[in-house]
Design brief:
Elements: E1 2-4, H1 7-19, E2 24-29, H2 35-47, E3 50-55, H3 75-84, E4 89-91, H4 95-98, H5 126-141, E5 145-149, H6 153-166, E6 171-175, H7 195-200, H8 203-216, H9 222-234, E7 239-248, E8 263-272, E9 275-284, H10 292-300
Helix pairs in contact: 5-6, 8-9
Bound molecules: adenosine monophosphate.
Adenosine monophosphate binds next to helix 2 and strand 5.
């Protein structure tokens, strides 16, 4: 496994792999790796015979009061996990290499409209930071396939739109959320939780699964579903819902009434103490069943 620290070195390695006739996959991460990230690596391996994982805590996607400085950094463990997963290359640039003009750069890639709901209003500039850095990672790593987690569903839909609109010749693959035994979505931020908070956080996926059951049973009006989602999560001590929304997966706009054939994203952001967690389910209303999430995940991929 090779580690590349500059854009130039990464591009050279990618071009060499390409000349050797290899198919390249990229898995962008911010490190602090867990089993969710490793699931992306395994998925990448199914599509490509050269897998690059990037590790970069991207400053432009953090707001001024967010956790950039204290975001967990576990470099040695990350490298060991990636080696064990059979990764070919790690791209770990420093911030000056990826943003050569620093604060003066003022060059952005932005997808409008799809950030009007869910995380967008609460994290101004976040998705612009994500689309900009992923564009830079694409140009550095030259992938044929890029693999992302559907745990960050809004991010995935925005990046997919960016890729199609700009014509990046890259296939976008979305991987279903990897969860703990009690349903909590794996996240690098889970390590901020105290044991009590960690236990209470299981209310988030439980509430989402409950809503899915009600949709499967035929409930179509969104308002009571969202109210119940709110109430069930807020019952957990120390939990505060920032948003709970049901949007269509095409435009990411709120839906009032579900209809057969619709694909919706049921998404929440919840503060548990000081820690902000997000989670979601993608539900195919016409085929709503307990297997819907997996079927739909393949479909969006
Ligand atoms: P991050 O390092 O948190 O920026 O995440 C890097 C990639 O891993 C993103 O595409 C995330 O959506 C994905 N990811 C994070 N957590 C999970 C999870 N629990 N299951 C699947 N993918 C995940």
């Amino acid at each position: 496994m090779h580690v590349y620290a500059t854009v130039r070195a990464m591009q050279d390695a990618a071009r060499t792999a390409m000349r050797e006739g290899r198919t390249l996959a990229l898995v962008p991460t911010m490190g602090a790796l867990h089993a969710g990230h490793i699931a992306l690596v395994h998925e990448a391996r199914r599509h490509a015979n050269h897998v690059t994982v990037s590790i970069f805590v991207n400053p432009t996607q953090f707001g001024p009061n967010e956790d950039f400085d204290r975001y967990p950094r576990t470099w040695e463990q990350d490298l060991a996990a990636l080696r064990e997963a059979g990764v070919d290359a790690v791209f770990a640039p420093n911030v000056h290499d990826l943003y050569p003009f620093g604060q003066e750069e003022r060059v952005w890639v932005q997808v409008e409209a799809l950030d009007a709901h869910l995380c967008g209003p609460f994290r101004p500039g976040h998705f612009r930071g994500v689309t900009t850095v992923v564009s830079k990672l694409f140009l550095a790593c030259q992938p044929d396939v890029a693999v992302f987690g559907l745990k960050d569903a809004q991010q995935f839909f925005i990046l997919k739109r960016m890729t199609e609109a700009l014509g990046f010749p890259i296939r976008m693959v979305g991987v279903p959320t990897v969860r703990e035994a009690d349903g909590l979505a794996l996240s690098s931020r889970n390590r901020y939780l105290t044991p009590e908070q960690r236990a209470h956080a299981a209310a988030i996926p439980k509430a989402l699964f409950h809503i899915r059951e009600r949709i499967v049973k035929g409930e179509r009006e969104v308002k009571p579903l969202v109210q119940s989602l709110h109430a069930r999560i807020q019952e957990a001590p120390g939990a505060r819902v920032q948003y709970a929304e049901v949007v269509d997966t095409q435009r990411l706009q709120p839906v009032d009434l579900l209809a057969d054939g619709m694909q919706v994203l049921v998404a929440v952001a919840v503060y548990v103490g000081q820690t902000r967690l997000i989670d979601n389910l993608i539900i195919d209303v016409s085929a709503a069943s307990t297997h819907a999430h997996h079927a739909v995940s393949r479909q969006v991929a």
